[in-house]
Amino acid sequence: MKLNEFKKINEKTRRKRICRGIGSGKGKTGGRGMKGQKSRTGVSINGFEGGQMPLHMRMPKHGFKSKSKMRKTILKTDFINQLLEKKIISDKAKLDINQIMNLSKASKNSYIKFLFGKKLEKSVSIQAHAVSASALKEFKRAGGEVNIIKFKKEPSIKSDDVKKKPLKEKKVSNDSEKEKKVSNDSDKKTLTPKATSTVKIKAKNQKAVSSRSEKKKVSPKDSKNKPSKKT
Length: 231
Hints:
The structure is a single chain. By secondary structure, the chain is of the alpha/beta class. Among the domains are: 71-148, CATH 3.100.10.10; 157-190. It is 38% helix and 11% strand. The strands form 2 sheets. The chain has a 3-stranded parallel beta sheet with strand order 1-3-5. Strands 2-4-6 form a 3-stranded parallel beta sheet. The protein is flat and about 140 Å long.
């Protein structure tokens, strides 16, 4: 082992330069072989299936949903004046970001920005994600304030989770309904009109039998009580 035989650790290996003479090992054809379509330049044979529709063209198209995408809703000071005219809000009112979204009918996770339109009639304090310089001056002139808050995207609830919850509740309710039906059926069996009618008939028959037996005991067939025949 000599000093000139030491090798550096993590030394990057340079790629092999092709077509630099026969002695390089990749001379003449440069590793492409003899003739043929693949030895020529400008040939895109990868993915070719002999004329039929290739796989990468048969597959359906699909895109993506950007996580950084924001739905922007731009409002003007005219919107505040309209709310005051319709008496939806009063003078010196304080509106949260959720209230503004509900009143403006903005979609969920929307980025709200206020711009200057007409002059404000009364002082109103609001919350917004962004405000223009002219609109900020107008709110301060009217005696209101603008609280700029950071935009936070709320996580969306998956449809599968929403569907699973009511199904579980329905199963529990069905079990309780079944128990109620069983108890109602048992009550009906004990209090059915047919059962009551049969009980009444049996009671009448017993009374009739008892009355007959009493009559027989009271009026016995004696020979003395019989009328004598005339001769």
